[in-house]
Design goal:
CATH class of the largest domain: Alpha Beta
Structural class: alpha/beta
Number of strands: 17
Oligomer: single chain
Number of helices: 14
Helix content: 25-40%
CATH superfamily of the largest domain: Phosphoglycerate kinase, N-terminal domain
Distance between the termini: 13 Å
Shape: elongated
Bound molecules: adenosine monophosphate
Strand order of the largest sheet: 3-4-2-1-5-6
CATH architecture of the largest domain: 3-Layer(aba) Sandwich
Number of domains: 2
Largest sheet: 6 strands, parallel
Radius of gyration: 23 Å
Length: 416
């Protein structure tokens, strides 16, 4: 079933959203992107004449009630965004009456699902090494089913619009779907858009396809790099990874971030790229700093020759040109991870050069997907989020989808 084809009139819909929004110390929302992201789905249900039971997690309360992570703090903001009153159930397992009394057009927000350990389904207070762990896990999985069944009992139909948690098999993201038939479970609009964007990257590839992987470490990106190697024409590896590759080739990288135990892996990636005919693009120069702070002294160095006491913190001018050239003319672009320590204003030039080239290629007709935590913060910092084709809301979920893994949150609804 798709959300567009379903008439919610007179139906109660339980919708999993990702309202894990950042709050300041007074409980005020500092960025409401995630609330805005779910609005098309929530508004469609209300406009059809359905009623809403909205559920989400916030933070990591680890199965215990924690007032600092209570969703009651965002109730008014949700009500304002929806343009209607929102009731609040302060115990997500005791919302029967509130849910039963909902009239068409009304909305109910459930308290943070993760106040119960059953939501994540991981046994608490027992170490993985403990011999009793497996039994505890099995028991918790049974409790998770009961928890999901209870959530399902509030509604006629289940909608999953929480892409950020789609890579987790939690009660509200996947298990709950087992209690609805195929005609009464579906993805929300945000999920549909995210899934389509990943599909564009993995299946509907227009060439040349350029992937730009940055960030701090090779080790956290290796799964995606290996998966992309079979698909891309150009693979730009930048950010902190640069120095592991330079070191692997015998370079001196000073105090740069470098994973000494990943040198063989770096050489292996270089070998594989050659075998597969992938144009692997690595930085040749960098902006090095003499301290990890914005206002340190800087110099431009070859990535192979960084003096002791200095560390590579951004792509150098020659590298920026090489990266921009590889990006220009691409027809499919994936960008994950900055090219330097972009949080410091003096080290944004490399990421900025990439962002500008991605925007230019997009204007020339490329499909560009930017995603995964820091790269989103980066395009937002440059004010360019509207000039790329798609900015994903997912961090881990996006990366796992691009690695080619089936997301449990999508599979549970689509029955794949
Ligand atoms: P990741 O979470 O792996 O995508 O890494 C993102 C982080 O990598 C950002 O916070 C950047 O500041 C950081 N980063 C990028 N380039 C470097 C570098 N050359 N040295 C240290 N950190 C870097």
């Amino acid at each position: 079933m798709t959300i567009d084809n379903f008439d919610f009139k007179g139906k109660k819909a339980i919708v999993r959203v990702d309202f894990n929004v950042p709050l300041d110390e007074n409980g005020n929302i500092t960025d409401d992107t995630r609330i805005r992201g779910a609005l098309p789905t929530l508004k469609k249900i209300l406009a059809d004449g359905g009623s809403l039971i909205i559920m989400s997690h916030m933070g990591k309360p680890k199965g215990k009630v924690n007032p600092k992570l209570s969703l009651s703090q965002i109730k008014d903001a949700v009500a304002k965004a929806l343009g209607t009153d929102v009731a609040f159930a302060d115990d997500c397992m005791a919302a029967d009456t509130l849910a039963a009394n909902l009239k068409p057009g009304q909305a109910l927000l459930l308290e943070n699902l993760r106040f119960y350990p059953e939501e994540e389904g991981k046994p608490v207070g027992i170490d993985k090494a403990d011999p009793a762990y497996d039994a505890a896990k099995k028991e918790m999985k049974e409790r998770q089913k009961e928890f999901a069944k209870k959530l399902a009992s509030y509604a006629d139909v289940y909608v999953n619009d929480a892409f950020g948690t789609a890579h987790r098999r939690h009660a509200s993201t996947a298990v709950v779907a087992d209690y609805f038939d195929a005609d009464h479970k579906m993805l929300g609009y945000l999920m549909e858009k995210e899934v389509k964007a990943v599909d564009n990257i993995l299946r509907d590839i227009k060439r040349p396809f350029t992937a730009i992987m940055g960030g701090s470490k090779v080790s956290t990106k290796i799964g995606i790099i290996e998966n992309l190697m079979d698909k891309v024409d150009n693979l730009i590896l930048c950010g902190g990874m640069t120095y592991t590759f330079a070191r692997a080739q015998g370079g001196q990288v000073g105090d740069s971030i470098c994973e000494e135990d990943k040198l063989d892996l770096a050489l292996d990636i270089m070998r594989k790229a050659k075998e597969k005919g992938v144009n692997l693009v690595l930085g040749v120069d960098c902006v090095a700093g003499n301290a990890f702070k914005n206002d340190c002294d800087t110099q431009i160095c070859s990535v192979m020759d960084i003096p002791a006491g200095w560390e590579g913190m951004d792509a150098g001018p020659e590298t920026r040109k090489i990266f921009a050239n590889a990006i220009r003319g691409s027809k499919t672009i994936l960008w994950n991870g900055p090219a330097g320590v972009f949080e410091f204003d003096n080290f944004t030039a490399g990421s900025r050069a990439i962002a500008d080239a991605v925007v230019e290629a997009t204007k020339d007709g490329a499909f560009s997907l930017v995603g995964g935590g820091d790269s989103v913060a980066c395009v937002n910092k440059f004010g360019l989020a509207d000039e790329v084709s798609y900015v994903s809301t997912g961090g881990g979920a996006l990366l796992e989808a691009i690695e080619g893994k089936v997301l449990p949150g999508v599979a549970a609804v689509k029955g794949e």
